[in-house]
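Friendly challenge for the regulars: who can give me the structure tokens for this chain first? No prize, just bragging rights.
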Amino acid sequence: MKIYDKDMYQKEQKLQTIILIVVIFIIGFLIGYFAHKFEKQEQINSLETQIEVLEKQLNTL
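First reply, four minutes later:
Bragging rights claimed.
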């Protein structure tokens, strides 16, 4: 009976480790996704500002 309990405990620990690794990966992926999205939005805003400035310069010609 002790061998069975020990084996079950080891399998449970392995499963918990796998679940922990998957959860950490998902959290890291989501953080990276939102950071990338935020950086791209800043770049889009910067380009839109440059376009507005260039349009104003064209209109004054």
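The mean pLDDT is 90. The first helix runs from residue 2 to 60. Your move, everyone else.
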